[in-house]
Amino acid sequence: MSAAACVFCKIIKGDIPSFKLFESEKVLAFLDIQPLSRGHALVIPKFHGAKLTDIPDEDLKEILPVAKKVAQVSGAQDFNILQNNGRIAHQVVDHVHFHMIPKPNEKEGLGIGWPMQDTDMDKLKALHEELKSKM
């Protein structure tokens, strides 16, 4: 998707209104219009890219500090910071975005399944060596 067709790029440009919480040269934070709970907000880089790996490091430096501040001002005691990459990973809008989702109780906020796998220590050791060599 091109930046011109991107809903978040249109929000950044002001073509689509939003409930802005914070804006700087590289970052925008605004309330989600389909919230999972009160205070659910999005923090996005202004640089257009579909996946986290598409965004230059320089454009990511403010993201977590801004998400932290949004969490603090929301008053949430418990919350999730969520960032999805790709359709099967539940990404709907093809512009990197971080959700700050307050979790006030079991019913509201983000619900997660966590399908843990049994550990094969030999395979885990081999994977560790493979990944570490690429870092």
UniProtKB/TrEMBL annotation:
Needed cofactors: Mg(2+)
Domain of life the protein comes from: Eukaryota
UniProt-listed GO biological process terms: nucleotide metabolic process
Keywords: Hydrolase, Magnesium, Nucleotide-binding
Active site per the UniProt annotation: 97
Catalytic activity: adenosine 5'-phosphoramidate + H2O = NH4(+) + AMP
Name this protein carries in UniProt: Adenosine 5'-monophosphoramidase HNT1
Source organism of the structure: Aspergillus steynii IBT 23096
